């Protein structure tokens, strides 16, 4: 550890020394080093900016700050090179994504870069103080950094170098303290700062910041950005008088641009060539560089084209081509102010050369001398201001260097402290390693124990599910016989005493069935297998029909039961009708159970929310026995009632409210209760659902039809397949009023034999049977073309959702659970027969 820390300090010292040595290297050597950092030898030109285009699609598929910064790289690459035809489509794509995802930062970025392009091409006059205030202060820290680049560029262009240098240093410190995602912005801040230093005359400082920019982001920069970096090196070398190096880099720039075929880059390439030729005093070469750009220069629309026009006019005048030079001079004077101020010095120089070419050297001298005297005062004022600006800017740069030096000193001091602490750290690491080995062994043993416990828990859970499935089947089978015979018996002519006894049998069986269903629901909820399935429905109608079904019970007890809609009708809604009715059933049945006189009221209210959804409030109030606060606190626990007397007096298991609470929570709602002993209770369910499109409602509820209304059943040939004779007897009693011809089979094989011998209109197929079960028998029937349209209804005591799905997948048309409800069975049979008849007719 100690040797490692010492080596880190030595490497840092050597790196610092190398940096100092580099700063004193000859200019040509420094330019070569900078080109190597950019990686010019490994650059592969990108045709038609395909690397930028690919990066754009990847960026917009991302999210958060990663999308923001990667999109900035794409937009800035096109903005910096003033490629409007590329920037605008990407700006529209990014703006659409920002609207879709409600991303204000991405929207602000698009506005910033689109406005920045106009700002650069229209004379740095587009941004207002309000724009700068918005982007720098009110759009977040990330947009502040990106907008800061444009602000530094603006301040440098208008000669406010002191502010530009101060802001660049401030933003660079902010960006460097941010995470790695902001590194491309840090690189560009160094690059833009180099422009300011170059304008101030600090060419060495400019090259230093260019080098720093290359170190930060050139490993994965776009081809267009690498081309821009080479352009900046050539430009700076030309300004420093290193014309040979400038020509070499300009030639490299020209090869890259030519291989890419990009027309926008070609314009920059031609300007660079003309600038170096002008500084070399080669007017004929200036014209050669600008020849391909003649259409753009003749009708300039951008600042760069105006500068190229000045170079061409000056070269033409120097070569004595007065007419062409005068035409360019007129073009220069006709440039609108929106593209930038006129260059009076350049115009005066061109005019003097024209006068000389036309044989008026004295006039040329007088015009230049008059302009010189008028301009000298302006130059003196500008120089005084520029000196102050440069002094302040350089002072800010010096402070930044001092801060960097101070940070390096602090890092060295910290490294020394780390070296001294390395021995202690090594000892601590040894202790930690020893403890870690012991902890790993302990965790390994604990993991084995945990895995074993988890396997045992899963096995126990599977055993519980299997037990519940078996018990459900075994309990429902005798219940089917008991309740079926009681329903059939109730349709006979009975004495009042006999009818009362039959009703008691049915009530007891129904109570047992409710208990069985509650236990199964609770088991499915705890196992996470019960799912909420919203469908389109009429919530008002569902609640009203359910309350109406309890009216006979309420009248028998002498209790007034009412339903009231407490708001405007909501229209169709998306909700799980089965679970909502289950919750309301539990609340209404409880209210009637614990209310001996007075009333039970059910209220429904639906209100729209701000996000377009619907808030539903379902309230059940009664004037029953009420509850104390202690009872309310434990009300929703499973198998819990108010006290022992409640169970003795009113019966029940205490599962209904616990299941109701869990179902409401699964529907993302909540249930509340208010109660006072002796004065009644109020249960309130609140949840938020989605509105739905209206669907055509059926004319009537088939389950509510009277038995004699099932016209499709009359005179039908029905095969009943069940291994229990009692179950077959129950169905025979159910179907006697419809003059059905019944055939019986005790297993699936016998059913196949019966169907092979005589025509059958409908099959009632039990699932669990010996010899051949109902599912396999159904599969074999569906494979026979004769029976593909034969209605088959599965009868099973297993009501688990997986079993129901298995029945339907095997080819059954419908499913009826045991104990069989008379009306439900008749309704399903009628529906299947009707559907088959319509299919055959069609």
Automatic annotation (TrEMBL):
SMART domains: HATPase_c, HisKA, REC. Its EC number is 2.7.13.3. It comes from the Bacteria. The keyword Membrane applies. It is an enzyme of class 2 (transferase). It holds the Pfam family HATPase_c. GO terms for cellular component: membrane. GO terms for molecular function: ATP binding; phosphorelay sensor kinase activity. This is histidine kinase.
């Amino acid at each position: 550890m100690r040797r490692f820390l010492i080596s880190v300090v030595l490497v840092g010292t050597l790196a610092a020394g190398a940096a100092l040595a580099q700063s004193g290297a000859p200019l040509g050597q420094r330019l070569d080093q900078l080109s190597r950092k950019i990686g010019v030898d490994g650059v592969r030109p990108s045709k038609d900016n395909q690397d930028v285009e690919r990066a754009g699609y990847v960026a917009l598929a991302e999210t958060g700050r990663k999308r923001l910064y990667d999109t900035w790289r794409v937009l800035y690459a096109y903005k910096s090179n003033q490629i409007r035809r590329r920037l605008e489509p990407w700006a529209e794509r990014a703006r659409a994504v920002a609207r879709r995802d409600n991303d204000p930062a991405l929207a602000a970025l698009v506005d910033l870069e689109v406005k920045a392009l106009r700002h650069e091409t229209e004379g740095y006059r587009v941004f207002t103080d309000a724009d700068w205030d918005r982007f720098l202060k009110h759009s977040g820290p990330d947009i502040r950094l990106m907008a800061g680049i444009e602000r530094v560029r603006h301040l440098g262009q208008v000669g406010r170098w002191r502010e530009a240098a101060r802001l660049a240093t401030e933003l660079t410190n902010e960006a460097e303290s941010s995470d790695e995602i902001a590194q491309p912005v840090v690189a560009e801040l160094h690059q833009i700062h180099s422009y300011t230093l170059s304008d101030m005359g600090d060419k060495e400082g400019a090259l230093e910041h260019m080098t720093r920019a290359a170190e930060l982001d050139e490993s994965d920069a776009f081809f267009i950005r690498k081309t821009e970096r080479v352009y900046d090196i050539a430009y700076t070398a030309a300004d420093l008088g290193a014309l040979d190096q400038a020509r070499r880099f300009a030639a490299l720039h020209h090869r890259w641009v030519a291989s890419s075929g990009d027309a926008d880059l070609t314009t920059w390439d031609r300007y660079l060539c003309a600038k170096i030729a002008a500084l070399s005093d080669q007017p004929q070469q200036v014209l050669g560089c600008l020849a391909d750009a003649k259409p753009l220069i003749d009708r300039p629309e951008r600042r760069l084209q105006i500068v190229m026009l000045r170079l061409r006019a000056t070269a033409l005048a120097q070569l004595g081509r007065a007419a062409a030079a005068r035409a360019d001079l007129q073009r220069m004077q006709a440039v609108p102010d929106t593209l930038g101020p006129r260059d009076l010095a350049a115009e005066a120089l061109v005019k003097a050369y024209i006068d000389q070419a036309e044989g008026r050297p004295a006039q040329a001298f007088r015009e230049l001398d008059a302009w010189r005297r008028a301009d000298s005062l302006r130059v003196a004022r500008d120089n005084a201001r520029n000196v102050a600006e440069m002094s302040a800017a350089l002072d800010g740069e010096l402070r930044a260097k001092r801060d960097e030096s101070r940070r390096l000193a602090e890092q060295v001091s910290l490294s020394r402290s780390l070296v001294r602490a390395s021995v202690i750290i090594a000892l601590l690491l040894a202790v930690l390693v020893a403890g870690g080995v012991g902890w790993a062994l302990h965790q390994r043993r604990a993991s084995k124990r945990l895995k074993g416990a988890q396997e045992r828990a899963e096995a126990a859970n599977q055993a519980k599910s299997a037990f519940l499935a078996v018990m459900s089947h075994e309990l429902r089978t005798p219940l089917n016989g008991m309740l079926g015979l009681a329903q059939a018996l109730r349709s006979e002519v009975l004495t009042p005493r006999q009818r009362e006894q039959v009703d008691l049998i049915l009530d007891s069986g129904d109570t047992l069935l409710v208990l069985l269903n509650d236990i199964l629901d609770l088991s499915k909820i705890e196992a996470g297998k019960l799912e909420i399935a919203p469908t389109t429905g009429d919530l008002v109608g569902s609640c009203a029909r359910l309350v109406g079904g309890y009216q006979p019970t309420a009248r028998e007890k002498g209790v007034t039961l009412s339903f009231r809609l407490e708001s405007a009708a909501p229209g169709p809604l998306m909700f799980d009708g089965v679970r909502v009715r289950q919750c309301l059933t539990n609340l209404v049945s409880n209210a009637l159970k614990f209310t001996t006189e007075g009333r039970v009221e059910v209220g429904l209210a639906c209100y729209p929310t701000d996000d377009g959804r619907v808030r539903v409030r379902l309230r059940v109030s009664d004037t029953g026995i009420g509850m104390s606060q202690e009872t309310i606190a434990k009300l929703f626990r499973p198998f819990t009632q108010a006290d022992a007397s409640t169970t003795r007096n009113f019966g029940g298991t205490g599962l209904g409210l616990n299941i109701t609470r869990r179902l409401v929570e699964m529907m993302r709602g909540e249930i509340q209760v208010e109660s006072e002993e002796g004065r009644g209770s109020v249960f309130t369910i609140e949840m938020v659902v989605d509105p739905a499109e209206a669907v055509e409602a059926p004319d009537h509820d088939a389950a509510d039809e009277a038995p004699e209304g099932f016209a499709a059943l009359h005179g039908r040939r029905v095969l009943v397949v069940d291994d229990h004779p009692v179950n077959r007897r129950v169905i025979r009693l159910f179907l006697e009023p419809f003059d059905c011809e019944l055939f019986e089979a005790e297993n699936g094989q016998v059913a196949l034999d019966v169907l092979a011998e005589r025509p059958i209109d409908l099959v009632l197929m039990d699932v669990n049977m010996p010899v051949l079960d109902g599912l396999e028998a159904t599969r074999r029937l569906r494979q026979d073309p004769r029976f593909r349209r034969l209605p088959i209804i599965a009868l099973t005591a297993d009501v688990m959702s997986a079993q129901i799905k298995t029945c339907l997948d095997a080819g059954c048309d419908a499913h009826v659970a045991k104990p069989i409800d008379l009306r439900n069975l008749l309704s399903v049979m009628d529906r299947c027969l009707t559907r088959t008849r319509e299919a055959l007719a069609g």
